[in-house]
Design brief:
The complex is a heterodimer of chains A (255) and B (245). By secondary structure, chain A is of the alpha/beta class. Chain A is 35% helix and 24% strand. Chain B has one domain. Classes of the chains: A alpha/beta (255), B mainly alpha (245).
Amino acid sequence: MMNATGNNHSGVSLQVRGLRKSFDGQEVLKGIDFEVKPGEIFVIMGPSGSGKSVLLKHLIGLEPPDAGEILINGESIQSPEIAAKYRMALVFQSGALLNSLTVGENVGLYLTEHRLKPPEEITRIVAEKLEDVGLKDATDKMPGDLSGGMKKRAAIARALVIEPQLILYDEPTSELDPLSAVVIGEEILDLNRRIHVTTLVVSHDRELAFGIADRIAFINDGRILKIGTPDEVKRFDDPLIRKFLNADFKRETKS
Amino acid sequence: MFENIGEIVLLFWRTLLALPFAWRQRQKVFDQFFEIGNASLLMVCILSFFIGAVIALQTGPVLVERSLSSAVGGVVGIAIAKELAPVMMAILIAGRIGSAMAAEIGSMRVYQEIDALRTMNINPVHYLVLPRVVAIAVALPMLVVFAILVGWFGGAVVAEMNNNISIPIQAFFSDLRDIVKPKDVANGVFKSFCFALIIGVVSCHQGLVTIGGPRGIGRSVTKAVVNSIVLIVMSDYLLTRILLK
């Protein structure tokens, strides 16, 4: 696979310091600190309801924090120029494709709305990005006609069009069969290698995390418990992390 | 409703600021315009014909009985042009189009499509609100002009056919022309323009603040329609008072 526009990009650094957020008096993020280096694949793991998706919304500027700061290359995400200066993309858990547009229109939406390229060029880029994610025949389909995995791949193609310097994935393999999950994981890795995009993945998929991450952070109850490389994580003795990593069905077999 | 008035006014202001981008969004404006016209034209015809007919039926016999038959055309003409066509059409459009706007934007909000737009640095006011408000602000006054003409025709038909009135169509329109001035029609059309802004902004605002799942969308649709109608009726009095001067 080739980068459709042939451009190389270097990722940005991401720093989160003392991030706090409450909804209706309930504190969801209780002081989050971590740093992601440029070009790194950083996976945040944790049980459902631990604050992962809320954290992601803060990282892309969709939610303002109550306290703390988020810095992209040292500049606050809240500053008005940040969106024009750095290209960032979020791949939503549901895909969040616009249901009134075709897949092709969805993928080209960023370029069309910001009038960054002439229409023929946009058509070419959309076709290339969709081919990159294995959806070249889906250009004229409506999002409602796609399966869950195809929607996610289309959402990744839409993010690729932005040529992001920071890409965030929200549960990229949830609701996917194991084969599709592997394809998505490879896609994340491949994209990171090709354009050195800083990648942050929020997931509770253990296979994905250990398969793609440079570093893994564990979040629970709105706090980061530990951060380490996959090898270090395997050696963590925190009981909650051990329980999370070793959780499995236990069924007694009749002899 | 009133706790959101500040947010609604703010959204209206943002939409005004976005007006220079309306040309860029012309395809969406045209799509919405077609949607409003296509969805409502038949209903507008039926509704306004019968409104004209019933006004003639209610006022005609009373006026004829008092030897004021020459006033029937004028009464029906004024009532339709200045009041009934703008208000009734606005209520119809609030129900048909305002509800659709709130439902569409509300579902986009619930299913994170609006968040997706924001992550792509696409302003939801430019992309979603502006085309809808511009389209309805153009379409509703045009529908009201149409409704006034059909309403007058409905009144004229009943005035001729009803035995208690029996005013020929030519006489009805001749009387109407004597009393109804172009300014009266312009008043009605201007009011409908203001109502269109109310429906567009209130419905889009309600869509944008939707929370929850399908139930939240349903709630938003109901609130959009009810709030639009309440504001239409209230502003109708205010506008009528101002335009009387």
